[in-house]
Amino acid sequence: MIKSQHVVPRAYLKLFENSNNRVFAYNWRSNLYAEKIIEKVCEHNYTYEVSNNDVDNVLEIALSKLETKFMPSIHKILDYVDKGTLNRSCIDSEICYKYIMLQYMRSDSGRVLMGRAMSKLSPLDHHISLDEIAQNKDKDQIFNTRFKNEKELERILNLFYYLDHPLIKVGVSKERKFLTSDNPVIALYLPNDGLALKLILPISPRVCLYCASLDFERIYQNEQESFPYEINKDLAIKYNQSIINVSNYWIISQDRFDIIDWNSIYNRRIK
Question: Residue 159 and residue 179: Cα distance in Å, rounded?
Fold first, then answer.
């Protein structure tokens, strides 16, 4: 039985590896920064178990099966972006949306939020801190118990897609690379703009997926907007600041952090 389990999948982290087959990683709790193999980041013991004394890896296996099912569509997008030939037909919006939602749900904060939503019908309206995660371990266990069955995971992902049917868009950053973290999905809640939820997920140092979860937004979408949208340096910095702000344990980069990254980390630490 495997006790060391990743809060984001190794297949995802591998997309951020450098030429040394490692990533640069900063850990909030230890305040340490180093170049590491992906097996040593974004993981801790018994992540997806109901009890440390009853380890069965059922949920870990169910998650792995879904990741294996989704990854070819992600690799396809990255391949076409590299070739400069990405078009609408290359993007499987259903698979990509489910992939985004799975990364959102499986993190420590995501499992607590999902457990809270299932027990109290509370909205998924914010990212939560380590203290809040620790205070809500019972909600984490609600998630781990319910989704041990792969079919139940697929059922909820199918339901999410059925309710939203979002059009996935692809953003490409040429001037600045994206960071990622143990909470890789940036969820923007903008109720004053009539936008229920906007989700952004970096899938490589240069490419991100994003979508808006609202019928209103889809009315104004067109095919051209689905093609790679160039993300300028300022917007890439904002995305990276968001990644840093919602991370709980780890911040991950393909390259060494620079002064902009360290400044964002410093600003988060002094809040």
Answer: 30
Phi, psi (rounded to 5 degrees) for 70: -85, -30
**pTM (predicted TM-score):** 0.90
Beta carbons within 8 Å of 104's beta carbon, 6+ residues apart:
110, 185, 187, 199
Which structure tokens are listed for 77?
A: 């997008």
pLDDT tens across 191-248, in order? Answer: 555 556 788 999 999 999 998 765 444 544 555 556 688 999 999 999 999 999 999 9
What digits encode the pLDDT tens for the residues 169-198? 999 999 999 999 999 999 876 655 555 678
CB 225 within 8 A of CB 153: no
Structure tokens at 134: 């620790």
Strand spans (E) along 63-194 = 169-172, 180-181, 186-190
Q: Inter-axis angle of helices 150-164 and 58-83, to 10 degrees?
A: 50
User: 254-263 burial, b for 16+ CB within 10 Å, e for fewer?
Assistant: beebeeebee
C-alpha Rg value of the chain to the nearest Å? 18
Q: How far lies 213's CA from each of 36, 196, 203, 205, in Å?
A: 35, 6, 19, 24
Tokens at residue 204, please?
A: 């490589």
DSSP code string of 222-258: -HHHHSPEEPPHHHHHHHHHHHHHH-SSEEEESS---
What pLDDT score does 121 carry?
55
CA 154 to chain centre: 17
